[in-house]
C-alpha cells in the first residue's frame, strides 16, 4: 500500500485527509502545527505525527495542503536549518494554490534532493472534499503522475492531467479562480441589486438560477448570501484576496489584461478592509448591502415604475 505523509489539516486539508484515510487507498500519517487540529484528526483514527519530518518519514508521497507559499516552504524546509522534510526518492504532491512560479521554485529546490514534485491544486470545497468529489488539476511528467494517480483518484472525481510541466496545474487553477471570483462578485452584486429594487431576492434567485444566468456560484454562494449565514467558513473571503492576487500578478507579468478579475480582486480586498476577512466568501454581498443602505442623507431611490 502507498504510504502517504500528509502536511496540513486546515479547512480543506482535514476533510481531504479524512477522505483518504477512510478510502483505504493509502496508509496516511499527518501533521499540522496546531495541536488541537492534530488531536481532532487523531480522534477520527488518522495517525498523526509531532513534526513534518516524522509525518513524511518513509513516505512514498508527501501531500501538502496548506494556505500559501510561505506555509508550503515552512512545511518542506524547516527553519531550524535541518534537512528538507522529503526524503530522496520521494514525491511531493502540492495541492495548495500558490501560483506557477512558486511551485516551480519549490520543485527546483527539491530536485537537488532528488525529490519529484507533482503540481496538483484542487477545486470543489469542503463538502466535495469529504466525498472525494474534488476536481484536481495535475501538472507533472507521466511517470510522476502515474505514481500518485491512485491516491488522487480517491480524492477527486475529476483528475485531469493538464500538462507535463510543474506549474501547468497551477496555471489551470488560476483560470478556475478567475472564474470563481468573478462569479461570486457577480452573484453578490446581482442579489443586492434585486433587493435595492424592492424585490424578493430569494424569489429572484429561484427564478434566474435555472436560466441562462445560472452558475454554480450563484447556486451555492447565492443560497448563503440569502441566508446571511457566513459560518462555518468553507472558503474565507481572504483566500480569494490571495487567489485573485495571484491571477492579477501573473497577468501583469505577461501583460495580459484581466479587467474583470482585477475588479473582483478589489471587491474582495475591500471586504477584508470591512472586517470580513475570516468570513465565508459569500459575505461579499454585505458590501453591496451596506452601500445600498448608506445612501446620501436626504436622497431616496427613484420610485418603482407602475407603467404597463
Write the layout of secondary structure elements.
Elements: E1 3-7, H1 13-23, E2 27-31, H2 35-43, E3 47-48, H3 52-56, E4 61-64, H4 69-76, E5 91-94, H5 100-111, E6 116-119, E7 122-123, H6 125-130, E8 134-139, H7 142-155, E9 156-163, H8 168-196, H9 201-208, H10 216-227, H11 237-253, H12 259-273, H13 285-293
Parallel strand pairs: 1-2, 1-4, 2-3, 4-5, 5-6, 8-9
Antiparallel strand pairs: 7-8
Helix pairs in contact: 8-9, 8-10, 8-11, 8-12, 8-13, 11-12
Structure description:
There is one protein chain. The protein has 308 residues and is an alpha/beta fold. The protein has helices spanning 13-23, 35-43, 52-56, 69-76, 100-111, 125-130, 142-155, 168-196, 201-208, 216-227, 237-253, 259-273, 285-293, and strands spanning 3-7, 27-31, 47-48, 61-64, 91-94, 116-119, 122-123, 134-139, 156-163. A six-stranded parallel sheet has the order 3-2-1-4-5-6, with helices on both faces. Strands 7-8-9 form a three-stranded mixed sheet. The longest helix has 29 residues, at 168-196. The radius of gyration is 21 Å and the shape is globular. The model has no long low-confidence stretch (mean pLDDT 93).
